[in-house]
């Protein structure tokens, strides 16, 4: 089951893996997952933390219970076929099932943030948990806080054991730490990641640059670039709650300024200001 693409740069892309005895349950579990992560998103917004999800999963996969190989294949397929996915919601068949440890190890291997939910809780939408006197707000809050911590760790952790993929610039399988790297190679690599093209203009030019504020502090350079869908970003520099974003042309910088005052979420409003006098002049003329 595959769902359509929705472009919201601040919402996390996710997938569902269902370790359940009956494949026909996947449709219901996919709907449950959307409801569950919607509730987590609402609570995260109230807590002012980053745990915001797209409305639907990119894909929902069935995996036979007790089958590690099938589970491993599912995780690998998600990584290869849906590279934008960074979160896995895994429906676990029962308490103390081996799938829990598989979820942890496979997520670490592929660089996913993960969360498990017992099948019984998914089927009744945590009704039994609520009947036991547990506050569902606390459940959603705990998940939101875990996702925020795990996402931050994935982005900021310096331990290579927690960074399964990296961008390597240079030649050879292993690069010595004292290797001098060509700055043009670095620029080309960054351009390629940000704009999917190795043929870009220099990273930072005032005529095609803007300064932005009002974005969530949890966003890194790549997250900020995604705030401008369809516009080729060639560089991002973050400093003290502000960021300079450079585009391939001054015309794209002009278009980016049209997004100023865009509401990103209930707590963040994007503000975009051109650094180019020429673009500023054109913006002033457009409002007269």
Automatic annotation (TrEMBL):
What InterPro entries would the database entry show? RBD_domain_sf
Query: What superkingdom heads the lineage?
Result: Eukaryota
Cited SUPFAM superfamilies: RNA-binding domain, RBD (SSF54928)
Which Gene Ontology molecular-function terms are recorded?
nucleic acid binding
Its name, as the record gives it, is: RRM domain-containing protein
The organism is Ancylostoma ceylanicum
């Amino acid at each position: 089951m595959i769902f359509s693409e929705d472009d919201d740069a601040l919402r996390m892309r996710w997938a569902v893996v269902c370790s359940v005895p009956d494949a026909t349950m996947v449709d219901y579990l996919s709907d449950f997952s959307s409801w569950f992560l919607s509730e987590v998103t609402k609570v995260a917004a109230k807590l002012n933390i980053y745990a915001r999800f797209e409305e639907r999963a990119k894909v929902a996969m069935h995996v036979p219970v007790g089958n590690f190989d099938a589970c491993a294949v599912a995780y690998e397929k998600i990584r290869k076929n849906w590279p934008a996915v960074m979160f896995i919601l895994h429906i676990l068949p029962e308490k103390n099932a081996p799938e829990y440890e598989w979820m942890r190890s496979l997520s670490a291997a592929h660089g996913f943030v993960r969360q498990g939910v017992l099948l019984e809780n998914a089927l009744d939408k945590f009704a039994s948990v609520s009947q036991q006197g547990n506050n569902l707000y606390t459940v959603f809050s705990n998940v939101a806080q875990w996702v925020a911590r795990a996402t931050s760790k994935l982005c900021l952790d310096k331990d290579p054991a927690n960074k399964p993929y990296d961008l390597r610039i240079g030649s050879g399988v292993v690069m010595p730490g004292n290797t001098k790297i060509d700055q043009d190679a670095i620029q080309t690599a960054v351009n390629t990641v940000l704009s999917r093209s190795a043929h870009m203009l220099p990273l930072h030019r005032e005529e095609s640059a803007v300064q932005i504020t009002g974005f969530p502090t949890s966003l890194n350079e790549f997250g900020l670039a995604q705030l401008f869908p369809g516009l080729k970003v060639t560089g991002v520099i973050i400093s003290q709650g502000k960021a300079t974003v450079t585009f391939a042309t001054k015309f794209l910088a002009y278009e980016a300024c049209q997004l100023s005052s865009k509401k990103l979420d209930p707590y963040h409003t994007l503000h975009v200001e051109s650094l180019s006098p020429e673009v500023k002049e054109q913006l002033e003329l457009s409002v007269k």
